[in-house]
């Protein structure tokens, strides 16, 4: 018998197929109505700071999940409780040791390890340029840091170490001594140095810091007690005398010569020169083309003089420079512009004096630069 036209016979569906289809539908619905943004809170926990003021400075994130979230912590610091005394060792005062670095000298790091001040009270801060030399210096610095902080004796390990990279192009491609000291390069070079120092200072100065020791990367020899020796004078700004060791062909023996001419007492000649300058011009020291006749601390050294003899200064260098943290907190920084016709560390000394802080020099207390082979 023929079937009526239009009738359709349905095949019975397998129950397993129905179950798979239902599961697939549930998964699609869950996917569509679920959160469209993935939750990275678990991965963020590894990089988020456990304390809003502790490095790394990742933003503090409120915890996710059920329940009422805890508020971010509030840190309180009473700067009146931060001591800055002539006896920093007895009072367990924190030292911030800062170094702008373009080249890495192994002797510099070895000298740091010889410092007698407890390393657990010293925070190191570095800033390096984004150049080929800067990259190489960063690599070598990180190797020495790892060796000291991870594998070295406990007494050698520092409280913390911060490495920054400059966020601007360096004005000079070479760090050779002859190129760095050309008079024509001084304003742009020292302006860049001032920017580096300011970036390093403002990024690392903490509320518990008592003293800031600026130490150039090419200062490879200091007395082990330099922090205690300089702090005992209880001066807001104090600098030792910087020399360079070299082989003297005339004497056929090792010798030393003055090296840092930025520690000076002003002169009437220099003040008169400044009066004739334009607002953006700067005075430079140590160049015959600009004779200032200032009294240079480099030439005040006496072999039989008192080690801790003090002299007042109007300009300072940054080779080795101990500063009470309150001086920087007062606003004394390193001007990258002409400040009373001075720039960088010399401008810092002028700014500090304007704020009421008198720089002091120790002409008979010496630190040394790298070895030079010829006169």
TrEMBL record:
The chain crosses the membrane at residues 12-33. Residues 48-77 are annotated as: Disordered. Keywords: Golgi apparatus, Membrane, Signal-anchor, Transferase, Transmembrane, Transmembrane helix. Gene3D superfamilies: Spore Coat Polysaccharide Biosynthesis Protein SpsA, Chain A (3.90.550.10). This is Glycosyltransferase family 62 protein. It is a single-pass type II membrane protein. Its main location: Golgi. Belongs to the ANP1/MMN9/VAN1 family. GO terms for biological process: cell wall mannoprotein biosynthetic process; protein N-linked glycosylation. It is found in: Golgi apparatus membrane. Pfam families: Anp1. GO terms for cellular component: mannan polymerase complex. GO terms for molecular function: alpha-1,6-mannosyltransferase activity.
